[in-house]
Amino acid sequence: MQEPIDREPHWLTRPATIRKLWWGFGVVLALTVLAQFAIPIEGHFGIDRLFGFHAWYGFIACAAFILIAKAIGVLIKRPDTYYEARVEDDA
To answer: Is the separation of the CB atoms in 49 and 41 below 8 Å?
Structure first.
């Protein structure tokens, strides 16, 4: 019988690494929004000329997708024993 190997957790699962990744992603996102000062945006509609519009639009769209997915999950949710009951009925 093999003895359990006591290993260090993977570097991506360490809390310090996760914290650094969040900070890094936040900095990259902030820099892409701030780049709008240097790169003029020519919008096709009035609202897309606003500062940071694409970042807000993406965030709101993502949040809406999550809420829609949660609502669909509530509508089509089945009990944990759903398949067990069907197997017993077929037998």
So the answer is: yes
